Amino acid sequence: MTRVVIADDQPLVLAGLQAIFAHADDITVVGEAGNGRAAVDLVRSLEPDVLLTDIRMPLLDGIEATRMIKADATTAAVRVLILTTFDADEYVYAALEAGASGFLLKDAPPERVFDAVRVVAAGEALLAPAATRRLIEAFVQARGHARPDAMRLLAGLTDREREVVALVGRGLSNADISAALVVSEATTKTHVSRAMAKLQARDRAQLVVLAYESGLVHPGGS
């Protein structure tokens, strides 16, 4: 059973999410929070698998809540899924940088919500929506240059690991990467894991961010 804490400052949203999850046999809501501070406290006390949180909340926003959760060794394993109203929300990119595993639009159908929670709970990043990649591209392009620290991290990768990170950055799944490189999925998974360790990336979402911020993948590239 996947245990979820939901956080939003709108009671109607919380009630709606509770109603949605009541129909999922493998997901249970173990706590609700009306602000980011309460969300962090609940995550620390309840140790859920996933925090589903809004960004704009009083006391502590979803970005800072994510950063605090990921910085704490006791809660770093909790996956954070960001709820947002717009797929171009300027704060979503900052949330991904802070350690969120992806984002979900508030008007998503119940099946999409279930799938999103299951994906991040399984340790993957919710990067399938094209909107996620467009968002990352837009902010990296706006910056106008690669981050030197991100570029330095790439120096520690093997050629194959760099190739794999570039493909992850372009949105390919492990199965897609395996097909492109003509290797087994187990081999691809090993390359991804090693690259994440060397780049100090928390998860696949962080790999995508680093792929763009280091200049390994360029906005608008295929």
TrEMBL record:
Q: Does the keyword DNA-binding apply?
A: yes
- Which controlled-vocabulary keywords does the entry list? DNA-binding, Phosphoprotein, Transcription, Transcription regulation
Domain Response regulatory intervals? 3-121
A single GO BP term for this record reads: regulation of DNA-templated transcription
Q: Name one GO molecular function term.
A: DNA binding
Tell me the ranges covered by the HTH luxR-type domain, including all copies: 150-215
Pfam families attached here?
A: GerE (PF00196), Response_reg (PF00072)
Specify whether Iron is a keyword of the entry.
Answer: no
**In which domain of life is the source organism classified?**
Bacteria
InterPro entries, alphabetically? CheY-like_superfamily (IPR011006), NreC/VraR/RcsB-like_REC (IPR058245), Sig_transdc_resp-reg_C-effctor (IPR016032), Sig_transdc_resp-reg_receiver (IPR001789), Tscrpt_reg_LuxR_C (IPR000792), WalR-like (IPR039420)
Q: Which residues carry this modification: 4-aspartylphosphate?
A: 54
Residue span of the signal peptide, if any? none
Q: What is this protein called?
A: DNA-binding response regulator, NarL/FixJ family, contains REC and HTH domains
What is the scientific name of the source organism? Friedmanniella luteola
